[in-house]
Amino acid sequence: MAATANERELWIVGLGDRPERGEIVARYLAAAGYGTRIAEPHELASGRPLGVVLDLSPHSTDGWGILLAMKHDPATRDIPVLPVFLSERGRVGGVFPVSGFFTLPVDSDYLAERLAVFGLTEDVDDYDLQALIISRKGEERVARTVETLGFEVVNAYTGKEGMALATTGRQYLIFCTLMLPDMSAFELVDRYRLYPQTRNIPFFVLVKDGMKQGERGAMSRQIEHLVRKKELSQEEFLSYLRRRA
Q: Does the keyword S-adenosyl-L-methionine apply (predicted)?
């Protein structure tokens, strides 16, 4: 999530008619000096929060639908999103600190613009930088876009292959489709965090714009398998924000 703590509020979204599920997250954020509020998706375009903490668990109210709607709408697609897994009682089971989301088919101009805003294109003229694209089928439009920006593209087709290339190579940024043949993007980013050479590589998730309701439910259940059995402490949760600040 980013920026100065008291500048704007972090909104907790995806709770539907059970706002009490956001109380633990709100308390954790308040301890770090962040203003918070539990918000509805339709408020995002006019409210412009500092960022969104979005529940993507099976207990959320269409968290994946909210994410897709946010990233499809020019008024909200630049709002940073921190995906989390909240239990039925609101305990924080997991945090998935990706650098950002892009919908497929990717908007090439928008992708180039966002990478520039993130400062990821500043060194391409001075160094040989690689972009790793992890996708079962490959993403030609993404590859062409980052190549025009000066990156060398390296492709991987499974999570295991992406893991091997990132831990032994020199990737500068990574794009990964949400679901791979052997794991999800969230599981892969979880594994990258275990290694010093990969934990800080910018990691962007590519999400199919036409994700069906059944696919959204399946993805929420997939995330459920990743979360820890015990809830994250306040210190553990806030460590993700510090790294993104």
A: no
Instruction: Provide Rg for the chain, Cα atoms.
Output: 17
Token pair for 235: 């210190």
Please confirm whether the linkage preceding 49 is cis (ω < 30° from 0): no
Each residue of 142-157: pLDDT tens digit?
999 999 999 999 999 9
Q: How far, in Å, CA of 77 to CA of 9, rounded? A: 17
Q: Is the Cα torsion angle 70, 72, 78, 82 positive or negative in sign?
A: positive
Instruction: Sheet with 51-55: list strands edge to edge.
Output: 36-39, 10-13, 51-55, 81-86, 92-95
Cβ 67 vs Cβ 171: under 8 Å: no
Q: How does residue 221 score in pLDDT terms, banded at 50, 70 and 90?
A: confident
Go through the chain and tell me how many residues it has. Answer: 245
Query: Distance between CA 23 and CA 5 in Å, rounded?
Result: 19
Sequence-separated (6 or more) residues with CB below 8 Å from residue 107: none
pLDDT tens column, 32-52? 999 999 999 999 988 889 999
Question: CA 163 to CA 174: how far, in whole Å?
Answer: 11
Alpha helices in the chain (DSSP H): 23-31, 44-47, 63-72, 108-117, 140-148, 159-168, 185-192, 213-224, 234-244
The encoded tokens of residue 134 equal 């992890």
